[in-house]
Amino acid sequence: MSTRILLVEDEPILVSLYTMALAQSTYDVHNAADVETAETKVVSVRPQVILLDLLLPNTPSGEMQVENFHEPSGFHILRLVKGTPSLESTRIIVLSNLDSDEHMSLANELGADRYIVKANLDPHDLKRTVEEVLHSTEAPKKMRKVKVADENKKS
Q: The pTM is what?
């Protein structure tokens, strides 16, 4: 049985690039371009690996709600997966152009196995990264208790 990968990305050109980069392997790649579809596919596909963008529309219609810059919508998927006992062994590689220490730290605390800034990713390296995460001797990361950033906090 091939490894199931869920690619959660809303940019069509990146979906094509990443899918082509993984095509020469035996991976069974599924796509979701929004939070709602990703929630459904996480449960129906039960992927071993999720490649997760953080800035995503909430629905297939493209509705983008950025209520809290400190916690973009992709973190919802990360919390869902790592907070569900039957899914917590799923490996998650965050692929995002959010390169702040705050976002990287939160992804790590929520259980992401890797955090890669898309601008620094050569799509040809994606297959190797997936292989490294899949064959890592470390146990999949679990979510630690995390406080949600206070969006009303004054700097």
A: 0.86
Distance, in Å, from the CA atom of 35 to the CA atom of 64, rounded to the nearest integer, reads 10
Taking the domains of the chain in order of start, what are their residue ranges? 4-123
Q: Report how far residue 139's alpha carbon sits from residue 30's, in angstroms, rounded to the nearest whole number.
A: 24
4-123 maps to CATH 3.90.226.10: no
Cα atoms found within 13 Å of the Cα of residue 85, Cβ hemisphere only: 0
Q: What pLDDT, on a 0 to 100 scale, did the predictor assign at position 19?
A: 94
Q: How confident is the model at residue 145 (pLDDT cuts 50, 70, 90)?
A: low
Record the tokens describing residue 150, joined without a space: 């206070």
CA distance 40 to 36: 7
CA-CA distance, 39 to 36, in Å (whole number)?
5
- pLDDT tens for 6-63 read 999 999 999 999 999 998 888 999 999 999 999 999 999 999 999 999 999 887 776 5
